[in-house]
Amino acid sequence: MENFDEWFHDILENADITDSRYPIKGMAVWRPYGFQIRKHSMNIIKRLLDKDHDEVLFPMLVPESELAKEGIHVKGFEDEVYWVTKGGQRELNEQLALRPTSETAIYPMYSLWIRTHIDLPIKMYQIVNTFRYETKHTRPLIRVREITTFKEAHTAHATKEESDEQIQDFIEMYKEFFDDLGIPYLISKRPEWDKFPGSDYTMAFDTIMPNGKTLQIGTIHNLGQTFAKTFDITFEDKDGEHKYAYQTCAGVSDRVIASLIGIHGDDKGLRLPPKVSPNQVTIIPILFKKGKEEVLAKCDEIKEKLEAECLRVNIDDRDIRPGKKFNDWELKGTPVKLELGPRDLENNITIAMRRDTEEKVEIALDDNLADNIIELLDKSSENLSSQAWDFQAEHVKFAETLDEIPEIIESGNVAKFYWCGEEEVGHEIEEKTGYDVLGIQEEISEGKCIASGKDAKYVALIAKTY
Length: 466
Ligand code: 5CA
What we know:
Low-confidence stretches: none
Strand content: 25-35%
Distance between the termini: 18 Å
Radius of gyration: 25 Å
Strand order of the largest sheet: 3-7-8-14-11-10-9
Bound molecules: 5'-O-(N-(L-cysteinyl)-sulfamoyl)adenosine
């Protein structure tokens, strides 16, 4: 992959993921194949959330008066909000914001719903579209102006301890989610100057794309009592006192799909993890005039057998050269292809090809067929994941001096360094190097800060970011 950005742009079109020709900058169309990948990915996170969250759906429009209530929050978004100012020909009395995120839509309702400690905790989520008038260079799935796949979870708790536990729960949930997709991650606590507007602190998941730039693929925010105070979210506690709730929120976006495509893909196209691939098995019949019906009948039979084991299977019976079919499904990243011709039928076998390793194996068309295929899918899933984690491990390098940072980053890596934790020093590091401090990875009690020479408190990460 010589030029990742170009590769990424092309694959979205060539593999029928999205179409960016829609006539609004930063807004694209999900095409059927992409939509299925998106659907299977969201089903994974929904399953995880459904264990202890309720799914809800709030309106997309937020009155200006609500959006403006939380000062720091609105300041963080003021340059990015799209406004609805008219209804038909009439000017609206109050302009309405297209949600850039839904705190200010959800929390006025939480204020009505939460009365006593019995109502807590409250844990809700929605998967919706949100709008941000991004001023940085837009890129499909990576920086869009309509975020079409915005999973946002919002919780409220009686105590600070519970809200901190919720942050840990979200971290565990995101780990499980990204593990299922085979997407490696770096977890860090964002520096003060880069936390979510209005939050106490932000934990972020970043992943390293093939060109070495990091992409923020998930965020988790502890909102403390800031929004509770603004939106009057109070409850009567066991002791009879009225208290403000503690809140958290957590989000992922279309960037999940961007990382899935970018991290696993290769020069031939997508390499999809079986869990989210629209087809887990693609059967390619090799047809000649003679024996055509028999081969096709056998393909149907195999499809049925595999579907009975809940696998997603398609047969490519288009009237084109088999070579073209192989290329097409390589581009689209089906994890396992099965080839079946008249000779295979005679021998009662099929040739299975793994997309991740391009290995070919002969599999008997017997009662173990489904088990054998499932084993291949599992191996392919594990391999994609371990290749991706190996890539990450090779691309995080420790910088001993400030001067080493550009060298490390320009050769496609993320740099780790010791930091005293002081905000001014953090800004100085960003200014001197020209890169972004991602955040704090761990606390330490030895070593010296790379910039100030003072005792280091943290191992921090710095990178070129999307
Ligand atoms: N309300 C909180 C939690 S839901 C919130 O809005 N957090 S956020 O601003 O960090 O966004 C949530 C997720 O959306 C993050 O993973 C972030 O990387 C992603 N995201 C933010 N802006 C965009 C954008 N323009 N295009 C694609 N993804 C985006």
